[in-house]
Amino acid sequence: MSLTQAADFLTESETLHAALADLDAAAFDMPTQFKGWTINDVLVHLHFWNRAADLSASDGDAFAALAARVTAQFAAGGSLRPIENAEIAERGPALRAAWIDTARDIGTRWQGMDPKTRLPWVGPSMSARSSMTARQMETWAHGFEVFDILGQTRCESDRIRNIVVLGVNTFAWSHQVHGLALPDTMPRLRLTAPSGALWTFGEDDANTVTGPAVDFAAVQTQTRALADTALVVTGPGARTWMTHAQCFAGPPVTPPAPGNRFRRS
Known about the structure:
Layout: H1 4-20, H2 39-58, H3 60-75, H4 81-87, H5 92-109, E1 118-121, E2 123-127, H6 128-150, H7 161-169, H8 171-177, E3 187-192, E4 198-201, E5 204-212, H9 213-220, E6 232-234, H10 236-244
Parallel strand pairs: 3-5
Antiparallel strand pairs: 1-2, 3-4, 5-6
């Protein structure tokens, strides 16, 4: 059994790497629309957590020590940026090379892993499949601010389905983390894949979300405001979910305001 999500993570990493291919050292200090993070900040974050995911599968004791530091920082209400920056020394083109080399190594090796293998994480354990989906999601989501600031258009593919499914699977989490009552049923989703295929999820036909699967993933990862997408949302239950969607762990995060995240011309 192959871990196909590892191959999708690798392709996602290669897609972002291609966008960065011609940048000189100064360009890596360019601030993005995401919290003012620079491109260096984005790559440090991705590289740190890629390595952490790999460590969770190879050295349980070392990962437990890292997770304890991260958990303590979370508990103190502090940013994880100091921990990430302390672990990752490279910047600019050297960081780009270190990040993609590690992503290629992980994305290749993990394809042979049993998708059901349980791995420790910061919080509940997860399967290898979920771990790789999370790495693809982070690469895709943080890639958004890079493509946006560089004025580039990313070529999307049906590998986005992994992130769509993550959004579906975190339906309850999006309500829980924002202190919202959880509906008995999930809204009906009718999403159009990049290939043109129709993907359907959910069962509540009184609350529906219809439109591009890429836009659904963008709202779930909070890389676009709902109003800035082509999604058609019908019913109060669907509206509540899509205005509080959060497919990633951590404290509740407010989605970007309309017009705040866009591709620079």
